[in-house]
């Protein structure tokens, strides 16, 4: 089964918006066993969109479009789909009712342009949009399938996952299930080398690595007659991978590193405080995203200046004078100081050079020290990070949380 992706919108052609929809859909379709050999971006132009439909259907069985479902005059995708297949448009009452409810919740008026979004090509399957006013549609005609999805990624991804996946599974006659392993602390190339035999030799389930936001994920996907058979294939393969990668795997599915760490702290009933210099409060902000963290997170201090490190954390002036603010010794005293001052079981601290200036040959940009104090024991790790200022800060935050995670798993 072959599919082609058509992303519609002049803003994409002009580079005003990054086309993340195509990336998402290509990966999802590969997981479903649907081949994608072509992608294209077309501006909001009637003739070019119709020509795009014709050329794509000459090559494939399925077209998936994103964009062009909004309330403005240049949002033409459904209308042009109806024209291409010679179908009339009709008012879909359920979609109109939903649009009214959705805009009422947002305290917005239902305009005539919004009502136009409820018009659907006759005979089309309507895809409900839980996150917006534009319903999606599926048109089946002459052994060709046109799947029309909204442009905003939040709406598109939810609609694809909720409706399109099930539709495509019925076409293939198979159930397809995936489990994602989330990995931190090891690069994609090194990780892939360690499990190269698994990646290369696994056919059902398949194992595919993806780099994402300073971490790596592995998607294990099985195709079978039912969910139970899929799980029977996925489970052992995940265990095999875990036996090789061990503690580099911090979670599964949509679990993020910060929430995994926060959950661990809460489960172990250990109190924590943070003292941050180069990360500027990112660690504290990450932890407080977890519901219930207030029971164990006592306080966070952003001690950027040397004076603040001395006054707030009790870092010794002689330590700063001898070793500098960015040093193993200072990170150690910061972690111990915040735990002492906040009377917590855990103190976590960061000090480093995020750039773009401030680096030296001895202490370059990207040098970061992370200090973690837990119940009388202090560990300090030195990091040499790359990237711009924001990247260094984000990487330092994730590394700090990961250091704490590993310590909690090993010893507590």
Automatic annotation (TrEMBL):
SMART domains listed in its UniProt record: MoCF_biosynth
SUPFAM superfamilies for the chain: CinA-like, Molybdenum cofactor biosynthesis proteins
Protein name as catalogued: Putative competence-damage inducible protein
Gene3D superfamilies for the chain: 3.30.70.2860, CinA-like (3.90.950.20), MoaB/Mog-like domain (3.40.980.10)
Ranges for domain MoaB/Mog: 4-171
PANTHER family: NICOTINAMIDE-NUCLEOTIDE AMIDOHYDROLASE PNCC, NMN AMIDOHYDROLASE-LIKE PROTEIN YFAY
Naturally occurring in which organism (per UniProt): Clostridium sartagoforme
Family recorded in the similarity comment: Belongs to the CinA family.
